[in-house]
Write a structure and sequence with these properties.
single chain, two-stranded antiparallel ribbon, 7 helices, 10 strands
Amino acid sequence: MIAGVILAAGESRRMGRSKPLVRRRGETFLAHGVRLLWTQCDCVVVVLGKEGARVRREAEEEFARLASSGALGRDLTLARHGRGHKARLEVHFVENRAYRRGMLTSARLGIATALRLKPDAMLLTLVDHPSVRPETVRALGSSIAEAMKAYAPGRGTRATPGLAYAIVPRVGGRRGHPVALSTALARAIANDHDGESLSDSIRRNARLIGYLDVADRGIIANVNAPRGRRG
């Protein structure tokens, strides 16, 4: 099972309103991000920060409307078609009370929460990347799953924590999100109190980083300001 993590705890200063609740094509960034990760992840952890209680309440109301409309039923059907009849779709909310200290605190909390679900790997993304294509998420999920299957510790290495491995999508030489993480690397990031940023923590703790070149500029298109105003 691959778990998803969405970082949605920022202060949204340039946006001027709560970024997770910004709507595009009738759907909030948050609901869109969860449904996008559901294409590969049974469970998605959403890390909230500023106005966390309001964001969670409005998100739950939106998911209830999506369920009533049949949209979530279609998501589950597609998930089971791709992953088998045991696929399930869940979203877990967690609040980062230290969100003002930066994104890495949210990443560590989200990863630690997702690790309790005992996943085989993880996909981590940002709520302000609403243009990422589903095929990119599928490619990342397939790539990290294949890598984990290929890595099999030899006999007598029961204490080996596993391969600390990341797969980072790249377009035109620029790196973006979502990022795929092995559980060993995810655990190292969750326990890393010295990293300066998420990318720094990945570099500090990964034994191997792979790059997946994609034709998807959505991986680098973060939306920081309202339309018509540069972020």
